[in-house]
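Practice problem 4.
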């Protein structure tokens, strides 16, 4: 999708992505990723862009998406209308690589 098209990720699309990532609700109300899986959120607004990586949980509050990073050091809040893509990193589909081996 091109920037600036006015296309917004819908709640249904976000739900499908979280289901595909096998997210489960946690006690804090976040959709938490399974062990070894993180998300990268890709947003853009008025020509500026922001990618938020290593997200291990998200919570949707109205039009705001609260993203919790895997080390719990930073929490980001982005508006859903600025979100245009989500990358699922890790999981069972990703090949396991050991350091020093090709």
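Answer key:
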């Amino acid at each position: 999708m091109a920037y600036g098209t006015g296309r917004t990720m819908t709640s249904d699309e976000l739900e499908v992505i979280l289901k595909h990532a096998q997210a489960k609700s946690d006690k804090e109300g976040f959709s938490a990723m399974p062990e070894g899986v993180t998300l990268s959120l890709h947003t853009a607004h008025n020509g500026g862009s922001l990618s938020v990586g290593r997200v291990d949980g998200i919570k949707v509050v109205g039009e705001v998406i609260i993203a919790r990073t895997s080390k719990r050091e930073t929490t980001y809040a982005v508006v859903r209308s600025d979100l245009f893509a989500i990358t699922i990193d890790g999981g069972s589909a990703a090949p396991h690589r050991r350091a020093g081996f090709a």
